[in-house]
Amino acid sequence: MSEHAIEAHGLRKRFKTLEALKGIDLEIARGSSFALVGPDGAGKTTAIRILCGLLRPDSGKVAVFGDEPTAAKARLGYLSQRFSLYGDLSVDENIAFFAEIHGRRHFNARRDELLEFTRLEPFRDRPASKLSGGMKQKLALACALVHEPELLLMDEPTTGVDPVSRREFWDIVASLSRRGMTVLASTPYLDEAERFDEVGMLDRGAFLARGSPAELKADFRWAVVELVCQDARKARRLLADEAGGAFAEAQAFGDRVALLAEDGEAARIQAISILAKAGLGIDSSRVAAPSLENVFMRLLGGSEQ
Fold first, then answer.
1. CA-CA distance, 81 to 124, in Å (whole number)?
2. Domain match, 201 and 251 both
3. What is the per-residue pLDDT across 146-173, written as a single tens digit (0 to 9) for each?
4. CATH code, 233
5. Which of 188, 201, 267, 298 could staple 261 via S-S, CB 3.0–4.6 A?
6. What DSSP line would sit under the chain, residue for residue?
7. Measured on CA atoms in the order 206, 220, 212, 160, is the torsion positive or negative?
8. Is residue 185 domain-shared with residue 271, that is, in the same domain?
C-alpha cells in the first residue's frame, strides 16, 4: 500500500494555445493537508480536476491511493469552485440527494453527524437558496462528505465568502484533517494556506516553491518592514521609485506596505523619511517576520522578470 494518497508525475495539460500545466510533480502523504496557491490562471483548477479524474492530462501519470483517479472515485470527496446545490431542496434533501448519487442508502446517521459537525442542524428544513454564502459552502462540504471519503479535494471553496464564515469553514476542515482525512485545496488566500501541512506555490502551470509554511518562511532571506499608511498604493509607488537601494521590493497589501530589505531597521528609517517628504502620514511601522504573502509575492515578481 502506497504511503501517498496522491502521486502525480510530469503532469502536462494544454488548452489550445494555453499551457495550463507544465510538467508538475506532486506527492501528498496520507492524512496530510496540502494547499495549492496561485493567482487566476496559475493552473490550480486544472490540477485538481485531473487529480479527481474529471480531466485527463496530455502527459504524465496520476495515482490516487495507488489507482487511477476514476477507479478511486468512491474514496474521493470533491468540492468544485462552483458547487451546484439545488436551491429548491432543503438542507436535508440536498444531503440525501448526494448520498443517493454515491449509492448510500442508509445515510440518516451520517447526515445527522454532518449537520451537527457543520452547525447546520437548526437549518435542516431551510431551502438551500435561502442560506447565506458561508452556510451554502458548509452544506456543499457536507454533501461532499456524506459518503465518508478518505480524500477531500476542494477548488477555492471560500471565494466570495465573508471572513467570519471563511474562518469557520477552515476550522471544520482542520478538524477533518486531525481525524486523518487527506485534504487538498486550492486557494488564492495566503492566510488560508498557513493552516496546511504543505503549500505549493503555483504560477503559469509550474511550481515556484513547495514546502511547509514554516520552511518557506525560514528560507526567505529578506527582512520585512511593515508600514501602515494613509494611502498604501501611493506609498508603495513612491518607495519603489525612490528607495535608492535600501530595500529590494515594495509590496502593497490593503492599508499596509511591506518592504523587503537586507537591513530592516535601516529600510524602515529611510522609508519613513521618503514618505514624510511626500506628506504621507504613517500610522505605524515595524520590522516583522515574513508571511507567506511576502514569500509568494517575491517569487511571483521574480517569475515575471
1. 23
2. no
3. 999 999 999 999 888 888 888 999 999 9
4. 3.30.70.100
5. 267
6. --SEEEEEEEEEEEETTEEEEEEEEEEEETT-EEEEE--TTSSHHHHHHHHTTSS--SEEEEEETTB-TTTTGGGEEEE-TT----TTSBHHHHHHHHHHHTT-S--HHHHHHHHHHTT-GGGTTSBGGGS-HHHHHHHHHHHHHTT--SEEEEESTTTT--HHHHHHHHHHHHHHHHTT-EEEEEES-HHHHTTSSEEEEEETTEEEEEE-HHHHHHT---EEEEEEESSHHHHHHHHHHH-TTS-SEEEEETTEEEEEESSHHHHHHHHHHHHHHTT--EEEEEEE---HHHHHHHHHHHHT-
7. negative
8. no
How does pLDDT run across 195-252, given as a tens digit for each residue? Answer: 999 999 999 999 999 999 999 999 998 999 999 988 888 988 888 876 556 678 888 8
Is residue 148, in this structure, part of any structural domain at all? Answer: yes
Distances (CA, A) of 16 to 19, 20, 23, 58, 59: 8, 10, 17, 12, 15
Rounded CA-CA distance 220/225 in Å is: 14
The answer to whether residue 111 is domain-embedded is: yes
Q: Between 232-242 and 264-277, two packed helices, what is the crossing angle to 10 degrees?
A: 110
Q: Are residues 103 and 244 in the same domain?
A: no
- Whether residue 38 is found in the same domain as residue 96: yes
Instruction: Note whether 182 and 268 are same-domain residues.
Output: no
Residue 304 lies in a domain: no
- For residues 121 and 191, membership in a common domain is answered with yes
Residues 125 and 239 in one domain: no
What's the total number of domains in the chain?
Answer: 2
Whether 130 and 237 share a structural domain: no
Note down the domain range covering 155. Answer: 4-215
CB 120 within 8 Å of CB 165: no
